[in-house]
Write the structure tokens for this entry.
Amino acid sequence: MDRILIRGGNRLNGRLPISGAKNAALTLMPCALLTDEPVTLRNLPRLADVDGFGHLLNQLGASTTIEGSRPEDFGRVMTIRAGQLTSTEAPYDIVRKMRASILVLGPILARAGQARVSLPGGCAIGNRPIDLHLKALQAIGAELEMSAGYVTATAPGGRLGGGRYTFPIVSVGATENVLMAAVTARGSSRIENAAREPEIVDLCRCLVAMGARIEGIGTETLEIEGVAELHGATYGVMPDRIEAGSYACAAAVAGGTVELANVSAGDMGATLEALRAAGVGVEERRDSIVVSSDGKLAPLTLSTAPYPGFATDMQAQFMAMLCKADGASVLTETIFENRYMHVPELARMGADIQVHGRTAVVKGVDRLVGAPVMATDLRASMSLIIAGLVAEGETSVARVYHLDRGYERLEEKLSAVGADIERDSGG
Ligand code: UD1
């Protein structure tokens, strides 16, 4: 199995291109199920999860064609044609490997009047139920039946009616699912306490480009006027704000000046604010952000929250960065119950972190020391890479498949800005 080997200590300098957003791609791809016309997505990242989602669309009867797949290209263009669906089922084998598969539920139901999707089960960062996806779909007219680990959703008369739903807590995925289901309902829908993540805005814009009628985009109240059908569209996936934030943390702790290219600073408010509070130079340009640091960092107090708050997907990377801050930081995870799996691995590299329930106290240390460590989930893996970049000696990160789910050619991007990092495919 592949490992990533890093010899720490190099400063990072240069330009680092940011890919299309994984989490946006995974909700834009299922939109193509809503129409029999082709949907073309540009700036799609080359990631294992995107390939996996393409495979799921194929199983449902959609064809996927990819252009711009020269190995040296970042980003691809994918055209998805769902002329007709040959299956309305997302099987266990696919859903258990990729939780985001649940996002086909709303679109298949809207398109075919019925959908059967495996329940995803737990995952490394917590229990992650889908009850809110189901309640929201029920509120706009879906009838649900659970059996043998699957949920079958039916639209009486073949088409959802529309309705009103207020989320008790903010859920990105459930907001996406109900939105995709509501756009072609007979009547109108009103979704309150909707997630406002930039990826939801991206989804709304793509749906509007396909003919959907949505008001309140970017706010917590979405009003959807159902239309009879959607048409094809060409849409560019937004930049990956989490990838950009991850490399910003890397540059902040390693020191140097890195220009994160093709990003939108407007989507990264809380991350940039936290970097500045740690003493990192952050210059916002039109399509890029320049991060500069001498490696000396002030400690922070951060609590994760739904957008526009500080993203849970940035918590592990900030924790790795703050291991070298000058003082004690306090991080609180409010979104997922088990998102500190990187703590014992960071501790093996010399980090001083105490976890008390949902809160972690990170005392800055003078030195981290390279060690063999194991990735547990996507963002946790990135925190180990960040720690490895400043650790003395060699760090080897096992279970790289976690990173391949969400970071397009990580080692290539980091070595281009001066990191001593390589992939070892031998072991
Ligand atoms: C998405 C992102 C993930 C990010 C997360 C929070 C994708 C593919 N993944 O995940 O990277 O960390 O948003 O920003 O976009 N919950 C329920 N019932 C539900 C759904 C969610 O209780 O039916 C809970 C979850 O367990 C969690 C919280 O709600 O505690 C937020 O989860 P949610 O926003 O739904 O995360 P995902 O959409 O799974």
